[in-house]
């Protein structure tokens, strides 16, 4: 996908499913993903990697055992590798995730919310 212009808003408008990330682009060994979320996710961690959240719209709460982090549009937060967390959104949130290629959305805790990374249509 190098050399191709991708629009974040067009990408987000192309799907409606929650907790089903889509690859926007890849850079080196990382995927830049767009995702829509609503409700509570699964408590999990990523033992091998940090996870970056960038909120485009809505309000996202990253629940941590040490206390919650609340993100609004334009806010960025990095969950350090190995830190257990559980994203939650009371209303719909659009976000970008940046993670190494092959990172599973539920990390070390497979659940009904575990998703295969999808390509944009």
Automatic annotation (TrEMBL):
Which top-level group of life is the source organism from? Bacteria
Under SUPFAM superfamilies, the record lists: RmlC-like cupins (SSF51182)
Region: Disordered, residue numbers: 102-121
Feature: compositional bias, Polar residues:
102-114
InterPro entries in the cross-refs: Cupin_2, PKS_Associated_Protein, RmlC-like_jellyroll, RmlC_Cupin_sf
- One Pfam family, short name please? Cupin_2
Residue span, Cupin type-2 domain? 35-98
Under which name does UniProt file this protein?
Answer: Cupin
Q: Please name the source species.
A: Agromyces rhizosphaerae
